[in-house]
Amino acid sequence: MRAAGHLRNFSANALQLVANNVFGLVIFYVLSTGLSKADFGRLNLALAILLAAFNILSCGMDQLIIKKIAADENRESALSLYIIHTLITGFIFYGLLATGYILMPHTSVYQLLLFIGMGKLMIYLSAPFKQAANGLEKFKLMAWQSVISNFVRCAGLLALFLLHQFDFKIVVFVFIAGDVLEFAIGLALFKRSAGILITLKFNKADYLNLVKEALPQIGVVIITSSLARFDWIFIGFMLSAIKLAEYSFAYKVFEIALLPLSAIAPLLIPRFTKMFKRDDVNIAGMKFLVRAEAIIAGLSVLLINIYWTPAIDWITHGKYGAVNERVVFFLSLCIPLLYLENLLWTVFFTQGRLKMIFNAFIITLAVNVLGDMLLIPIFQNAGAAIAFLLACLAQIIFYLSKNNIAGLRNVWQPVLVCTLCAVVAGQAARLWIGVNWLVIPSSIILYGMLLLITGQLRRDVQVRMKAVFG
Questions:
Q1: Please, is 313 exposed, middle or buried when counting C-beta atoms within 10 Å of its C-beta (0-12, 13-18, 19+)?
Q2: What is the DSSP code string of 220-275?
Q3: Which of 13, 69, 136, 420 is least surrounded, with the fewest CB atoms within 10 Å of its CB?
Q4: Which tens digit of pLDDT belongs to each residue from 227-246?
Protein backbone atom coordinates (compact mmCIF):
# COMPACT_ATOMS: atom_id res chain seq x y z
CA MET A 1 0.00 0.00 0.00
CA ARG A 2 2.80 2.40 0.87
CA ALA A 3 4.54 1.69 -2.43
CA ALA A 4 1.26 2.25 -4.30
CA GLY A 5 0.79 5.56 -2.47
CA HIS A 6 4.27 6.76 -3.36
CA LEU A 7 3.70 5.72 -6.97
CA ARG A 8 0.41 7.68 -7.10
CA ASN A 9 2.17 10.74 -5.63
CA PHE A 10 4.98 10.44 -8.15
CA SER A 11 2.50 9.99 -11.00
CA ALA A 12 0.45 13.07 -10.04
CA ASN A 13 3.57 15.18 -9.64
CA ALA A 14 5.07 13.83 -12.85
CA LEU A 15 1.88 14.52 -14.81
CA GLN A 16 1.70 18.15 -13.70
CA LEU A 17 5.38 18.59 -14.51
CA VAL A 18 4.93 17.05 -17.95
CA ALA A 19 1.89 19.28 -18.56
CA ASN A 20 3.68 22.39 -17.29
CA ASN A 21 6.74 21.67 -19.36
CA VAL A 22 4.70 20.97 -22.49
CA PHE A 23 2.80 24.23 -21.97
CA GLY A 24 6.06 25.99 -21.09
CA LEU A 25 7.77 24.63 -24.18
CA VAL A 26 4.95 25.84 -26.43
CA ILE A 27 5.02 29.25 -24.70
CA PHE A 28 8.78 29.50 -25.05
CA TYR A 29 8.74 28.42 -28.69
CA VAL A 30 5.98 30.86 -29.60
CA LEU A 31 7.69 33.72 -27.76
CA SER A 32 11.16 32.96 -29.13
CA THR A 33 9.97 32.74 -32.73
CA GLY A 34 7.14 35.28 -32.59
CA LEU A 35 9.06 38.07 -30.84
CA SER A 36 12.24 39.74 -31.98
CA LYS A 37 15.37 38.72 -30.09
CA ALA A 38 15.45 42.18 -28.47
CA ASP A 39 11.84 41.94 -27.13
CA PHE A 40 12.34 38.32 -26.11
CA GLY A 41 15.47 39.31 -24.21
CA ARG A 42 13.70 42.24 -22.46
CA LEU A 43 10.85 39.98 -21.37
CA ASN A 44 13.27 37.40 -19.97
CA LEU A 45 15.24 40.09 -18.15
CA ALA A 46 12.05 41.30 -16.41
CA LEU A 47 11.04 37.74 -15.52
CA ALA A 48 14.52 36.99 -14.16
CA ILE A 49 14.48 40.06 -11.90
CA LEU A 50 10.96 39.33 -10.59
CA LEU A 51 11.64 35.62 -10.05
CA ALA A 52 14.73 36.42 -7.99
CA ALA A 53 12.89 39.12 -6.00
CA PHE A 54 9.86 37.02 -5.08
CA ASN A 55 12.03 34.02 -4.20
CA ILE A 56 14.00 36.23 -1.82
CA LEU A 57 10.77 37.61 -0.29
CA SER A 58 9.71 34.06 0.68
CA CYS A 59 12.61 34.11 3.18
CA GLY A 60 12.97 30.35 2.92
CA MET A 61 9.65 29.77 4.68
CA ASP A 62 8.20 27.75 1.80
CA GLN A 63 10.37 24.68 2.44
CA LEU A 64 10.02 25.14 6.19
CA ILE A 65 6.21 25.14 5.90
CA ILE A 66 6.34 21.89 3.89
CA LYS A 67 8.45 20.34 6.64
CA LYS A 68 6.16 21.57 9.46
CA ILE A 69 2.98 20.41 7.76
CA ALA A 70 4.52 17.03 6.88
CA ALA A 71 5.55 16.61 10.54
CA ASP A 72 2.04 17.74 11.67
CA GLU A 73 3.37 20.72 13.67
CA ASN A 74 0.31 22.97 14.16
CA ARG A 75 -0.58 23.06 10.48
CA GLU A 76 -3.22 25.80 10.53
CA SER A 77 -1.06 28.23 12.48
CA ALA A 78 1.96 27.64 10.24
CA LEU A 79 -0.10 28.14 7.07
CA SER A 80 -1.74 31.28 8.50
CA LEU A 81 1.59 32.89 9.35
CA TYR A 82 3.01 32.14 5.91
CA ILE A 83 -0.05 33.62 4.18
CA ILE A 84 0.32 36.81 6.25
CA HIS A 85 4.03 36.91 5.43
CA THR A 86 3.36 36.73 1.68
CA LEU A 87 0.66 39.43 1.89
CA ILE A 88 2.90 41.88 3.79
CA THR A 89 6.12 41.32 1.84
CA GLY A 90 4.39 41.01 -1.55
CA PHE A 91 2.47 44.28 -1.34
CA ILE A 92 5.45 46.19 0.12
CA PHE A 93 7.61 45.02 -2.81
CA TYR A 94 4.98 45.91 -5.40
CA GLY A 95 4.54 49.32 -3.71
CA LEU A 96 8.27 49.95 -4.09
CA LEU A 97 8.05 48.87 -7.72
CA ALA A 98 5.18 51.30 -8.34
CA THR A 99 7.13 54.08 -6.61
CA GLY A 100 10.07 53.47 -8.92
CA TYR A 101 7.78 53.71 -11.93
CA ILE A 102 6.33 57.02 -10.65
CA LEU A 103 9.83 58.45 -10.19
CA MET A 104 11.06 57.17 -13.58
CA PRO A 105 7.93 56.75 -15.73
CA HIS A 106 9.79 56.72 -19.04
CA THR A 107 12.17 53.88 -18.12
CA SER A 108 11.13 50.86 -20.20
CA VAL A 109 12.48 48.35 -17.67
CA TYR A 110 10.26 49.77 -14.89
CA GLN A 111 7.21 49.76 -17.14
CA LEU A 112 7.68 46.10 -17.97
CA LEU A 113 8.48 45.15 -14.37
CA LEU A 114 5.35 46.91 -13.11
CA PHE A 115 2.98 45.07 -15.43
CA ILE A 116 4.62 41.63 -15.35
CA GLY A 117 5.06 42.08 -11.57
CA MET A 118 1.29 42.37 -11.16
CA GLY A 119 0.90 38.77 -12.29
CA LYS A 120 3.96 37.48 -10.43
CA LEU A 121 2.56 38.98 -7.22
CA MET A 122 -0.49 36.73 -7.65
CA ILE A 123 1.76 33.69 -8.15
CA TYR A 124 3.66 34.65 -4.99
CA LEU A 125 0.40 34.93 -2.99
CA SER A 126 -0.64 31.47 -4.16
CA ALA A 127 2.62 29.88 -2.91
CA PRO A 128 1.39 29.08 0.67
CA PHE A 129 -1.43 26.92 -0.67
CA LYS A 130 0.86 24.99 -3.02
CA GLN A 131 3.44 24.37 -0.27
CA ALA A 132 0.70 23.25 2.13
CA ALA A 133 -0.59 20.78 -0.48
CA ASN A 134 2.97 19.48 -0.85
CA GLY A 135 3.38 19.01 2.91
CA LEU A 136 0.02 17.24 3.09
CA GLU A 137 1.24 15.00 0.22
CA LYS A 138 -1.83 15.99 -1.80
CA PHE A 139 0.08 15.98 -5.04
CA LYS A 140 -3.04 15.76 -7.20
CA LEU A 141 -4.27 19.04 -5.69
CA MET A 142 -0.83 20.60 -6.13
CA ALA A 143 -0.83 19.46 -9.75
CA TRP A 144 -4.07 21.29 -10.51
CA GLN A 145 -2.87 24.39 -8.65
CA SER A 146 0.34 24.48 -10.67
CA VAL A 147 -0.87 24.09 -14.25
CA ILE A 148 -3.49 26.84 -14.49
CA SER A 149 -1.23 29.77 -15.34
CA ASN A 150 0.79 27.91 -17.94
CA PHE A 151 -2.35 26.50 -19.55
CA VAL A 152 -3.93 29.96 -19.90
CA ARG A 153 -0.71 31.48 -21.22
CA CYS A 154 -0.16 28.60 -23.63
CA ALA A 155 -3.70 28.78 -25.04
CA GLY A 156 -3.69 32.58 -25.28
CA LEU A 157 -0.26 32.96 -26.85
CA LEU A 158 -0.80 30.09 -29.28
CA ALA A 159 -4.08 31.66 -30.43
CA LEU A 160 -2.35 35.02 -30.96
CA PHE A 161 0.49 33.33 -32.84
CA LEU A 162 -1.82 31.41 -35.19
CA LEU A 163 -3.99 34.48 -35.79
CA HIS A 164 -0.89 36.61 -36.52
CA GLN A 165 -1.81 39.06 -33.73
CA PHE A 166 1.43 38.65 -31.81
CA ASP A 167 1.83 42.10 -30.26
CA PHE A 168 4.23 42.59 -27.32
CA LYS A 169 1.65 44.46 -25.19
CA ILE A 170 -0.96 41.73 -25.69
CA VAL A 171 1.66 39.12 -24.74
CA VAL A 172 2.20 40.94 -21.41
CA PHE A 173 -1.58 40.99 -20.79
CA VAL A 174 -1.80 37.22 -21.39
CA PHE A 175 0.96 36.67 -18.80
CA ILE A 176 -0.93 38.73 -16.21
CA ALA A 177 -4.25 36.96 -16.91
CA GLY A 178 -2.73 33.49 -16.49
CA ASP A 179 -1.10 34.39 -13.16
CA VAL A 180 -4.26 35.98 -11.72
CA LEU A 181 -6.36 32.96 -12.67
CA GLU A 182 -3.83 30.60 -11.06
CA PHE A 183 -4.23 32.42 -7.75
CA ALA A 184 -8.04 32.58 -7.86
CA ILE A 185 -8.72 29.02 -9.07
CA GLY A 186 -5.89 27.52 -6.97
CA LEU A 187 -7.31 29.09 -3.81
CA ALA A 188 -10.78 27.75 -4.57
CA LEU A 189 -9.40 24.22 -5.17
CA PHE A 190 -7.42 24.36 -1.93
CA LYS A 191 -10.47 25.37 0.11
CA ARG A 192 -12.44 22.49 -1.37
CA SER A 193 -9.88 19.69 -1.22
CA ALA A 194 -7.09 20.33 1.30
CA GLY A 195 -8.98 19.64 4.53
CA ILE A 196 -7.13 22.39 6.38
CA LEU A 197 -8.75 25.63 7.56
CA ILE A 198 -7.47 28.91 6.10
CA THR A 199 -7.22 31.60 8.78
CA LEU A 200 -5.41 34.92 9.14
CA LYS A 201 -4.38 34.99 12.78
CA PHE A 202 -1.19 36.94 13.43
CA ASN A 203 0.72 35.96 16.55
CA LYS A 204 3.84 38.10 16.91
CA ALA A 205 5.74 35.58 19.05
CA ASP A 206 4.95 32.65 16.74
CA TYR A 207 5.86 34.69 13.66
CA LEU A 208 9.20 35.75 15.14
CA ASN A 209 9.92 32.13 16.07
CA LEU A 210 9.12 31.11 12.50
CA VAL A 211 11.43 33.80 11.13
CA LYS A 212 14.15 32.75 13.59
CA GLU A 213 13.80 29.13 12.56
CA ALA A 214 13.97 30.11 8.89
CA LEU A 215 16.87 32.52 9.43
CA PRO A 216 19.62 30.21 8.13
CA GLN A 217 17.39 29.36 5.17
CA ILE A 218 16.82 33.06 4.38
CA GLY A 219 20.48 33.40 3.46
CA VAL A 220 20.22 30.25 1.34
CA VAL A 221 17.20 31.64 -0.51
CA ILE A 222 18.92 34.96 -1.20
CA ILE A 223 21.94 33.12 -2.53
CA THR A 224 20.01 30.54 -4.58
CA SER A 225 17.81 33.26 -6.08
CA SER A 226 20.90 35.23 -7.05
CA LEU A 227 22.53 32.05 -8.32
CA ALA A 228 19.49 31.09 -10.41
CA ARG A 229 19.25 34.34 -12.34
CA PHE A 230 22.47 36.30 -11.77
CA ASP A 231 23.85 35.12 -15.09
CA TRP A 232 20.66 36.20 -16.93
CA ILE A 233 20.69 39.65 -15.33
CA PHE A 234 24.46 40.05 -15.86
CA ILE A 235 24.18 39.07 -19.54
CA GLY A 236 21.15 41.35 -20.02
CA PHE A 237 22.90 44.41 -18.63
CA MET A 238 26.55 43.71 -19.60
CA LEU A 239 26.13 42.18 -23.07
CA SER A 240 22.75 42.76 -24.72
CA ALA A 241 19.10 41.73 -24.76
CA ILE A 242 19.84 39.68 -27.89
CA LYS A 243 22.57 37.68 -26.09
CA LEU A 244 20.19 37.14 -23.19
CA ALA A 245 17.54 35.87 -25.62
CA GLU A 246 20.01 33.29 -26.94
CA TYR A 247 21.20 32.22 -23.49
CA SER A 248 17.68 32.05 -22.00
CA PHE A 249 16.56 29.79 -24.86
CA ALA A 250 19.38 27.34 -24.13
CA TYR A 251 18.67 27.57 -20.39
CA LYS A 252 14.99 26.77 -20.96
CA VAL A 253 15.86 23.54 -22.75
CA PHE A 254 18.26 22.77 -19.90
CA GLU A 255 15.39 23.23 -17.42
CA ILE A 256 13.15 20.94 -19.47
CA ALA A 257 15.86 18.28 -19.28
CA LEU A 258 15.53 18.49 -15.48
CA LEU A 259 11.89 17.36 -15.67
CA PRO A 260 12.51 13.95 -14.02
CA LEU A 261 14.35 15.67 -11.15
CA SER A 262 11.46 18.11 -10.73
CA ALA A 263 9.10 15.13 -10.44
CA ILE A 264 11.22 13.38 -7.81
CA ALA A 265 12.38 16.34 -5.67
CA PRO A 266 9.04 17.30 -4.01
CA LEU A 267 8.50 13.70 -2.91
CA LEU A 268 11.79 13.52 -1.02
CA ILE A 269 11.27 16.20 1.65
CA PRO A 270 8.21 14.64 3.38
CA ARG A 271 9.63 11.14 2.83
CA PHE A 272 13.07 11.96 4.27
CA THR A 273 11.53 14.01 7.10
CA LYS A 274 9.61 10.97 8.32
CA MET A 275 12.62 8.68 7.80
CA PHE A 276 14.97 10.81 9.92
CA LYS A 277 12.25 11.43 12.50
CA ARG A 278 11.99 7.64 12.99
CA ASP A 279 15.81 7.40 12.94
CA ASP A 280 15.50 4.69 10.29
CA VAL A 281 17.83 5.76 7.48
CA ASN A 282 17.36 3.64 4.35
CA ILE A 283 20.95 3.62 3.01
CA ALA A 284 20.31 0.92 0.40
CA GLY A 285 17.35 2.84 -0.96
CA MET A 286 19.31 6.10 -1.10
CA LYS A 287 22.25 4.53 -2.93
CA PHE A 288 19.96 2.95 -5.48
CA LEU A 289 18.16 6.26 -5.92
CA VAL A 290 21.49 8.01 -6.63
CA ARG A 291 22.42 5.38 -9.21
CA ALA A 292 18.99 5.51 -10.88
CA GLU A 293 19.09 9.31 -11.00
CA ALA A 294 22.63 9.24 -12.42
CA ILE A 295 21.49 6.94 -15.26
CA ILE A 296 18.52 9.20 -16.06
CA ALA A 297 20.70 12.31 -15.89
CA GLY A 298 23.32 10.75 -18.16
CA LEU A 299 20.64 9.92 -20.71
CA SER A 300 19.54 13.57 -20.60
CA VAL A 301 23.12 14.70 -21.27
CA LEU A 302 23.32 12.32 -24.23
CA LEU A 303 20.02 13.29 -25.87
CA ILE A 304 20.44 17.05 -25.45
CA ASN A 305 23.82 17.13 -27.17
CA ILE A 306 23.32 14.58 -29.89
CA TYR A 307 20.85 16.54 -32.03
CA TRP A 308 20.85 20.04 -30.57
CA THR A 309 22.06 22.07 -33.55
CA PRO A 310 20.10 20.45 -36.40
CA ALA A 311 16.87 20.11 -34.40
CA ILE A 312 16.83 23.56 -32.77
CA ASP A 313 17.96 25.39 -35.90
CA TRP A 314 15.15 23.64 -37.78
CA ILE A 315 12.37 24.57 -35.34
CA THR A 316 13.62 28.14 -34.71
CA HIS A 317 14.60 28.88 -38.32
CA GLY A 318 18.30 29.13 -37.48
CA LYS A 319 17.93 31.53 -34.52
CA TYR A 320 18.99 29.48 -31.47
CA GLY A 321 20.71 26.24 -32.55
CA ALA A 322 24.35 26.52 -33.64
CA VAL A 323 24.82 29.75 -31.69
CA ASN A 324 24.13 27.84 -28.45
CA GLU A 325 25.99 24.58 -29.08
CA ARG A 326 28.83 25.21 -26.59
CA VAL A 327 26.46 26.73 -24.03
CA VAL A 328 24.23 23.64 -24.08
CA PHE A 329 27.17 21.25 -23.73
CA PHE A 330 28.41 22.87 -20.52
CA LEU A 331 24.89 23.30 -19.10
CA SER A 332 24.09 19.65 -19.81
CA LEU A 333 27.07 18.54 -17.71
CA CYS A 334 25.39 20.25 -14.74
CA ILE A 335 22.35 17.95 -14.91
CA PRO A 336 23.87 14.90 -13.13
CA LEU A 337 25.41 17.21 -10.52
CA LEU A 338 22.04 18.82 -9.79
CA TYR A 339 20.43 15.40 -9.17
CA LEU A 340 23.09 14.56 -6.59
CA GLU A 341 23.00 18.09 -5.19
CA ASN A 342 19.24 17.86 -4.61
CA LEU A 343 19.48 14.52 -2.79
CA LEU A 344 22.28 15.70 -0.50
CA TRP A 345 20.49 19.00 0.15
CA THR A 346 17.32 17.10 1.11
CA VAL A 347 19.25 14.87 3.52
CA PHE A 348 20.88 17.84 5.24
CA PHE A 349 17.69 19.93 5.25
CA THR A 350 15.62 17.19 6.89
CA GLN A 351 18.44 16.70 9.42
CA GLY A 352 18.09 20.39 10.31
CA ARG A 353 21.63 21.29 9.19
CA LEU A 354 20.58 24.68 7.82
CA LYS A 355 23.74 26.54 8.78
CA MET A 356 25.85 24.08 6.83
CA ILE A 357 23.54 24.44 3.81
CA PHE A 358 23.88 28.22 4.09
CA ASN A 359 27.68 27.93 4.00
CA ALA A 360 27.44 25.64 0.97
CA PHE A 361 25.41 28.20 -0.94
CA ILE A 362 27.74 31.04 0.00
CA ILE A 363 30.58 29.09 -1.60
CA THR A 364 28.41 28.26 -4.63
CA LEU A 365 27.34 31.86 -5.17
CA ALA A 366 30.89 33.13 -4.78
CA VAL A 367 32.17 30.69 -7.41
CA ASN A 368 29.29 31.46 -9.78
CA VAL A 369 29.47 35.26 -9.49
CA LEU A 370 33.26 35.31 -9.78
CA GLY A 371 33.07 32.91 -12.72
CA ASP A 372 30.44 35.06 -14.46
CA MET A 373 32.46 38.23 -13.97
CA LEU A 374 35.65 36.63 -15.30
CA LEU A 375 34.30 34.34 -18.02
CA ILE A 376 31.32 36.15 -19.57
CA PRO A 377 33.43 39.07 -20.90
CA ILE A 378 35.79 36.51 -22.51
CA PHE A 379 33.52 33.65 -23.62
CA GLN A 380 30.15 35.49 -23.50
CA ASN A 381 27.22 33.07 -23.03
CA ALA A 382 29.45 29.98 -22.87
CA GLY A 383 31.29 31.66 -19.99
CA ALA A 384 28.05 31.80 -18.00
CA ALA A 385 27.48 28.07 -18.57
CA ILE A 386 31.05 27.20 -17.51
CA ALA A 387 30.67 29.35 -14.38
CA PHE A 388 27.46 27.54 -13.46
CA LEU A 389 29.15 24.15 -13.94
CA LEU A 390 32.05 25.19 -11.66
CA ALA A 391 29.56 26.41 -9.03
CA CYS A 392 27.70 23.07 -9.08
CA LEU A 393 30.99 21.19 -8.64
CA ALA A 394 31.96 23.43 -5.72
CA GLN A 395 28.66 22.75 -3.93
CA ILE A 396 28.90 18.97 -4.43
CA ILE A 397 32.47 18.89 -3.07
CA PHE A 398 31.44 20.91 -0.01
CA TYR A 399 28.38 18.73 0.68
CA LEU A 400 30.43 15.53 0.44
CA SER A 401 33.06 16.96 2.79
CA LYS A 402 30.35 17.62 5.42
CA ASN A 403 28.42 14.37 4.96
CA ASN A 404 28.07 12.39 8.24
CA ILE A 405 26.34 9.29 6.83
CA ALA A 406 29.00 6.66 6.16
CA GLY A 407 26.98 4.86 3.49
CA LEU A 408 26.80 7.99 1.33
CA ARG A 409 30.51 8.80 1.15
CA ASN A 410 30.98 7.46 -2.37
CA VAL A 411 27.65 8.52 -3.91
CA TRP A 412 29.53 10.71 -6.40
CA GLN A 413 30.98 7.70 -8.22
CA PRO A 414 27.83 6.65 -10.18
CA VAL A 415 27.32 10.29 -11.19
CA LEU A 416 30.82 10.57 -12.62
CA VAL A 417 30.68 7.17 -14.36
CA CYS A 418 27.24 7.72 -15.95
CA THR A 419 28.19 11.21 -17.17
CA LEU A 420 31.39 9.91 -18.77
CA CYS A 421 29.44 7.04 -20.38
CA ALA A 422 26.96 9.54 -21.86
CA VAL A 423 29.68 11.82 -23.28
CA VAL A 424 31.68 8.90 -24.73
CA ALA A 425 28.55 7.29 -26.23
CA GLY A 426 27.46 10.52 -27.90
CA GLN A 427 30.87 11.38 -29.32
CA ALA A 428 31.52 7.82 -30.51
CA ALA A 429 28.13 7.55 -32.25
CA ARG A 430 28.69 10.87 -34.04
CA LEU A 431 32.21 9.83 -35.08
CA TRP A 432 31.18 6.42 -36.42
CA ILE A 433 27.77 7.22 -37.90
CA GLY A 434 27.67 10.98 -38.51
CA VAL A 435 24.66 13.21 -37.93
CA ASN A 436 21.55 11.36 -39.15
CA TRP A 437 18.54 9.55 -37.72
CA LEU A 438 20.63 6.52 -36.68
CA VAL A 439 22.69 8.54 -34.21
CA ILE A 440 20.08 8.60 -31.43
CA PRO A 441 19.29 4.85 -31.26
CA SER A 442 22.96 3.97 -31.75
CA SER A 443 24.13 6.33 -29.01
CA ILE A 444 21.46 5.06 -26.59
CA ILE A 445 22.44 1.44 -27.24
CA LEU A 446 26.11 2.30 -26.75
CA TYR A 447 25.25 4.19 -23.56
CA GLY A 448 23.40 1.14 -22.23
CA MET A 449 26.34 -1.14 -23.07
CA LEU A 450 28.78 1.16 -21.27
CA LEU A 451 26.49 1.22 -18.22
CA LEU A 452 26.45 -2.60 -18.18
CA ILE A 453 30.25 -2.79 -18.54
CA THR A 454 30.80 -0.27 -15.72
CA GLY A 455 28.27 -2.02 -13.44
CA GLN A 456 25.75 0.82 -13.27
CA LEU A 457 22.96 -1.30 -14.80
CA ARG A 458 22.42 -4.43 -12.75
CA ARG A 459 19.90 -7.24 -12.35
CA ASP A 460 18.83 -6.18 -8.85
CA VAL A 461 16.45 -3.46 -10.04
CA GLN A 462 13.30 -5.03 -8.53
CA VAL A 463 14.97 -5.63 -5.16
CA ARG A 464 16.35 -2.09 -5.07
CA MET A 465 12.97 -0.59 -6.03
CA LYS A 466 11.47 -2.30 -2.99
CA ALA A 467 14.29 -0.85 -0.89
CA VAL A 468 13.39 2.66 -2.05
CA PHE A 469 9.61 2.45 -1.76
CA GLY A 470 9.14 -0.22 0.89
A1: middle
A2: HHHHHHHHHHHHHHHHHHHT-HHHHHHHHHHHHHHHHHTHHHHHHHHHHHHHHHHH
A3: 420
A4: 667 888 889 888 888 898 89
